[in-house]
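Look over what follows to help learners.
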Amino acid sequence: MIRTGELGDISGIAELMALRRETYERYQPVFWRRAAGATESHTAFLTKLVASESVLCLVSEDDGVMTGFAVATLVPSPPVYDPGGLTCTLDDFAVTSDSAWTTTGLALLRAICAEAAARGAAQVVVVCAHEDEAKRQALRLAGLTIASEWWTAPLDQPTNTAV
C-alpha cells in the first residue's frame, strides 16, 4: 500500500535514510561521509519538508510496517534549461532491502511521478549513488536515463597531478 506520508512517519523515514547513508558511505567514504548527528538533523529537515506544499512525500507499507518512502521537491529548472515545467527532484528515496527496488521502489517512483505530473512537473531527477546497483537497475526498468554524473576526489589525497 502506498499512501501520503505524514509527520508520524518522519522517524521511520529518517531511520531508513540513516541505513542508506551508512551503505553509501562505504561506496564513497568522503562524499557520503555521515556528519555527527545526521539522523537528528535529517529528522528536523524532513519535518519542514513534509509540511511544505511543494514537497511530495509517499510511504509504502505492508501490514502497517514501512517498506519504503519517497520525498520529492517540485522546483523550477535553472534558467538556462527549459524542460517544459517544474522538475521533480527525488533525493530522499529508499526501500528496506535491495530486492525491494524492483517492486516497492518502482511503485513509489511511479506514484511520485504521477503526482508530480499532476502538479505541473515535466521531468523527474532521481539521486542515486554510483554503486547502488539495485536502485540503478530499478531506475533503468522505469525508463530513466543518466543525465549527469558527479566526480569527486579528496583534496588531501590527489589522485593525479591535475588535482
